[in-house]
Amino acid sequence: MVEATVADHRVRADRPAHVPETLVRDIDMYALDGIEQGYHEAWKALQQPDMPELVWTPLTGGHWIATRGELVKDIYSDPTRFSSEVIFLPKEAGEKYGMVPTRMDPPEHTPYRKLIDTGLNPSQIRKVEEQVRQAAIDLIEPLVAKGQCDFAAEYANVFPVKVFMAMAGLPMSDVPKLSEFARDMTRPAGNSPEEMAESLDAANKGFDAYVDPIIRSRRGGSGTDLISVMVNGTINGEPMPHDKAVGLISLLLLGGLDTVVNFLSFSMIYLARHPEKVTEIREDELKLRRGVEELFRRFPVVSEARMVAVDQTYRGVELKRGDMILLPTALHGLDEGANENPWDLDWERKAPQHSTFGGGPHRCAGLHLARLEATVTLQEWIRRIPEFSLAPGANPVYHSGIVAAVENVPLVWAKS
Ligand code: HEM
Fold first, then answer.
1. How much is the pTM?
2. Which residue from 374, 152, 154, 131 is spatially nearest to 260, judged by alpha carbons?
3. For residue 361, which atom of ligand 1 is closest to its CA?
4. Residue nearest to atom 11 of ligand 1 (CA)
5. pLDDT, tens digit, for every residue of 78-114?
6. Which of 39, 48, 282, 327 has CA 20 to 30 A from 115's CA?
C-alpha cells in the first residue's frame, strides 16, 4: 500500500478508495510546516475555519488527523469505536511498539491500570513532594549567581528525570542512553514508515533489554521503589507475566523521561517572554498552584493516535477498521471552540479545557507527578530568580513528533 512515489524525500501512501480527495492535506506530523516559529503555532496554523474537522494525509504511512478539540476529546474517550490497538504513527512503527498497557483496550487494560495507579496516585505522589522540591532547589541554587543558563539543558532535561530515576531506584548514570531511546521512540528517524519502524523497534528493544535484568532482580523482593511495587503487584490476582512487566516498566520510563522535560521548556519560554504573567504568580501563591492546570492547557506536547475499531461513518466521514487517526492534543487546548482567547495564559481561567493528558481509560497515569513537578519548578524558580527573560537573539529549536521537543532555551537574569 505504501509506495515510493516521492516528490521529495518523504514516502507517500496511496489514497484509499474510501477517502475523498477533498479531505486530503499534506501534513507531516514529524516535520510540521512552520515549526521554526514554534510547535504550537505550527499545529494551530492548520486550524483555519475552512479546514475540515477530519483530514487525511498521505505522509507518515497515510492517516487521518482530527483538527478540532471536540473530536480529539471525543475520540480519546471512546475505546469501543477508536481502539488503542495501535497508537503510534506511522502504523508500521506503532505495530512494533510493545509498551504495556497503552496498546490494550478495556477490559484487558483495567487491571494493569489499577496497578499503575497504586504507585502514582495522589497520596503516593504527596509522599515524594519534599524529595521533588529538594531536587528542584539543588538544580536552581547553583544557577542563581550565574545570571544565565540554557533552561532546557541545565534544568528541564535533568529535573524530571532525576525525580523519576530516584522514585524508580535507578542510577542517574543510566539517563543518557535512556533519553536516547525515548527520543527514538517519540521522534523516530527515517523517511519511510519502514525506516521509522526500524528506529522505533530498536529503541523499544533498548528499553526492554535495560529493564529485563532489573525486573528479575526486584521480583520477590521487598523494595518500595516504583519498579518493585509494580513488578510485585498482581494482575487479576496472578503475578504479572514477565513480558508484560517488561512492557510496563519500559512505559513508565518513557512516560517519566520525555514529556515533562519538554513541557517545562515550552512553559518557560512563554514566561520569559511574558514577565507580567510571572509577576502575577509571584505575588499570589494560590494563583500559582491553581494556575498550573492552565499551563498544561496552553502547552500540550503529545500527538498520539487511535485505530478505527469498526467500519463506521463518523461525523459524516466514512472510516474503515484499521484506519489511523492522529489526535494532536495541541488542537484541543488551543481551539477557540474549547477555550476563549486560547493563546492567552490566564492563570484564573475557569475550567480550562484540554486533552494534554489524553482522555478516557488511558488518561495519563503520571499526571499527579507531572503537576507536582510543574508546581514545584515554578515556586522554587520564581523564589530564587524572580525576573528572567530570553537571552537577546535566542533561537529555540522546535521538533514535532509523538512528543514535541525544544532545545536551546537560553534565559538571562540579573546576577545576585
Ligand atoms: C507534561 C507531562 C505529561 C504529559 C503531557 C503526558 C501525556 C500523556 C498522554 C497524552 C497519555 C495518554 C496516552 C494514550 O491515551 O494513548 C499518557 C499516558 C500515560 N502517562 Fe503521561 N504524560 C506526562 C507525564 C507523565 C509522567 C511524569 C509519567 C510517569 C511515569 C507518565 C506516565 C504515563 C503512563 C503510565 C501512561 C499510560 C496510561 C495508560 O495507558 O493507562 N506520564 N500521558
1. 0.96
2. 374
3. 41
4. 364
5. 999 999 999 999 999 999 999 999 999 999 999 999 9
6. 327
